[in-house]
Amino acid sequence: MSDSPIVLQDLHKSYGRHVALRGVDLTVRRGEVYGFIGPNGAGKSTTMRILVDVLRPSSGTVRVLGRDPRAGGADVRARIGYLPGELAMDGRSDVASWLDYQARIHRAGPGAWRPYAERLGLDPARVIGKLSRGNKQKIGLARAFAHQPELLILDEPTSGLDPLVQQEFHVMVGEAVGRGQTVFLSSHVMSELEQVAERIGVIREGRIIAEAPLDELRGTIGTRFTVQFASPVDVDALRRVGGVTDVRRHGDTVVIEHTGSPDDLLTTLATHTVSHLRAEAPDLEESVLALYRSENTEGSIR
User: Fold this and answer.
1) Helix axes 284-293 and 214-221, enclosed angle (nearest 10)
2) Is 221 left (phi over 0), alpha (psi -120 to 50) or beta?
3) What integer pLDDT is reported at residue 298 of this predicted model?
4) CA–CA distance from 160 to each of 1, 136, 282, 286, 292 (Å)?
5) How does pLDDT run across 225-235, given as a tens digit for each residue?
6) Of the segments 27-31, 185-189, 209-213, which one has the largest average pLDDT value?
7) Do 120 and 145 form a contact (C-beta atoms < 8 A)?
8) CA gap 105, 91 in Å, rounded
9) What CA–CA distance (Å, rounded) separates 115 from 93?
10) CB atoms within 10 A of CB 111
11) pTM for the whole thing?
């Protein structure tokens, strides 16, 4: 088993004149949960399809479980649990028959998918074509997890799932990591990644613009101080304090966005009478949205 199940170096992918990936460098370590964030069209699904050899890169190096996906063929794919953004299934088949067939392809034991189907609330007797989007997603998850692969590649895995099933998915991810499996997942649900991911990669317009442990990613965006003053203060003076990136006044309350050490800011605040002070880290969604808005973020925390 490779110490780095996923290694991408200078990965490019173009479709004619459209450039989907622009020199992506990314390494996922064995046994971690790596969250991949980006807006629609950023390159998340393209990257995942290249990892499982559904797409071929235009240039660059791809190693999955130590092999080039193209050369590794069925042997490498059998060691991967893949959930695509849109899973193609035979709508005429019942759930059990389709999952049994998939289990044979992935070299899983007979009925290995059944415990996952039960946990996800999936009825094996149902005809696939009559299922809702959420239930079809459960089929994809049961298929991906059934053979307990070394590497799980999951594209928007909780799309269409109700909150209780999402929580069960989080438990399944935790169990997989406990067995030494690696999980590479994309999501638009920021709170989901906060629950399961150890590291986050942010992709925009085909480039990785940030990559860091979850807490460090938040830290690069800084801290929000909400300060209530006993008397009016000079807001412009606060804006000049080192590390302050934004100041907004709401009556006698001032909201200050700050990065880095707060020492200078706290020294300045101590010269005033402060009635109330609250410091809070921004949530992951705010952090990522700030990265999207930034024009000069690329590589800032890699």
Assistant:
1) 60
2) alpha
3) 46
4) 33, 9, 27, 23, 25
5) 999 999 999 99
6) 27-31
7) no
8) 19
9) 20
10) 14
11) 0.80
